[in-house]
Amino acid sequence: MGRVISDWRIQSKEVTPVLGRGYSVATGNLQSSCLNVEEQTTPSYDYDYYFTEIANHEKVSINKSFSGKISSSFGYLWAKSHVDSTLETNKNSERKKHFLIVTMRTQRYYSSVDEVHSTLSADARVLLEGGQYMSFFQACGPNYIRSVRRAAEITAIFEYETNEDTANSDFESSLKLNIRGLVGDPDPSNDRTTASRNIINSALKSSLSISIRAFGLGLNNDGTSSLHPRSLDDFKNVMDFAFQSMQQRDVGMVQGIEIVAWVDNPQFQVAAGLANTLQDCEDEVCSTVSMELKKMNLSSNAEYVSTMNSVMRSHIDHLYEIQSCRSMLNEFSSDQDDEPLMNHRKIRDLIDASGNESTSRMTVKELKDLLNANAVRKGEETVRNYSAYFYSRCMDALSQNLGGQEGGSSMVRPWYTLKECQESTCTVSGATVNSSGECTLETDDMVAISMQQYCMPTRISDV
Questions:
Q1: Cα(294)–Cα(412) distance, rounded to whole angstroms?
Q2: What is the pTM of this model?
Q3: Which residues pair with 96 in a beta bridge?
């Protein structure tokens, strides 16, 4: 049974969800692709094309216009900001700005893995057949992506000027007809052609301009210049190009994914030997473990291992970042010690609230002193303790052979029944472990905060 994920983590442009790629619900991390996707199902599309009109410059009218369909569009914030800033700049001018907003949007769904023609990768199968279940989940994740829902959109703002505070409804009605292609018959004697010419002339008199923002389109060599309209005819070409682009299978911004637990995949079940008889014995009393229980235990343990991996990786990354940042700092000569560094978290914070140059910056020497040998030793100790006193012990417990089955412990023993794994606090981001095996959650210290702000080091004078 699949689950749908549609939060900001999967919608981030920093990640690449593709069919067959691993995914962890517990961490939100994408992992390796362990499913060879040979064929996909035929997707379905939703299509929407609409106008947003702004009747006048009253704030209530503007807010009402932006509370409609456009409020759920990708271009909402851009269009709202453009209108607000333009009106604010133009408020004392005799010529008044007016806007007509056009939005075209498609959504593609039911584009999913055809599991009949998809196979496990060779390396993933070897891990499963060897009973290395936890190693498989570390690489491939507890789940895989079965389908991806995408959306693409193009939003255009038509901007023109009049001497009135209210929009020219006749002009906008004619403009909408022209945009839709209902005006422009090639017969010069046709009234509609005359109307088209009148619209163009009127547009010139009204200083018509077109601004475009596209989201999730696939550009190619033929279309790289197709998003820069210089006339209404060009705009029609833009919309035609955008519509064709939106129909490409793997184009669009990811809106959600459907994931399926690996344990529900028949090929996984066969390779992992889930149908084999496995007995759980306690005090010489043995019982056969059902296939469904094996699946639930494997799935639960897989997500738990993903959280451990995430914490372990963050500690290792932190240590490497300290070393890398120190190396870059050491490249600065001593006569550069007093130079201020760029705060990467507050790039705009070069001027304070009073308009003066900000002085609350860290210098090269201050960051050198902070990332000293003690900071490195503390990072090394954090990694060593987490690995030795929690991570390794829990992984060993989950990977034990049981009942003649290699790695059978992970099928029979859920993590919360194993004393080596029971401390779930150890799987929370930022958790540290001491030599006694006790887990604590620490807030970011000065080293961590400063690294987030100033590593990798860039002098302001170099910006």
A1: 6
A2: 0.83
A3: 162
Residues in the chain, total: 463
Residues 6+ apart with CB under 8 A from 282: none
Instruction: Show the beta-strand stretches assigned E in 69-130.
Output: 96-109, 119-120
Task: Return the DSSP state at 405.
Answer: B
| Distance from chain centroid for Cα 423 | 30
For residue 226, the model assigns a pLDDT of 66
Q: Round to whole Å and give the CA distance between 341 and 364.
A: 6
Whether 71 contacts 109, CB under 8 Å: no
Would you call 207 helix, strand, or coil by DSSP?
coil
Of the chain, the end-to-end C-alpha distance in Å amounts to: 52
Torsion of CA 274, 276, 280, 284, to 10 degrees: 180
Alpha-carbon distance of 178 to 164, in angstroms, equals 23
* Three-state SS annotation for 293-322: HHHHHHHHHHHHHHHHHHHHHHHHHHHHHH
pLDDT in tens, 240-263: 889 988 988 888 999 999 999 999
What is the maximal distance between C-alpha atoms in the chain? 99
Helix (H) or strand (E) holding 269: helix 266-271
In angstroms, what CA-CA distances link 176 with 77, 99, 252, 330?
23, 12, 26, 62
pLDDT digits (tens, 9 = 90+) for 33-60: 999 998 999 899 999 999 999 988 888 9
Q: Give dist(CA 159, CA 179) in Å, integer.
A: 14
Q: Report the distance separating Cα 351 and Cα 94, nearest Å.
A: 35
| C-alpha to C-alpha distance for 82 and 67, rounded to whole angstroms | 16
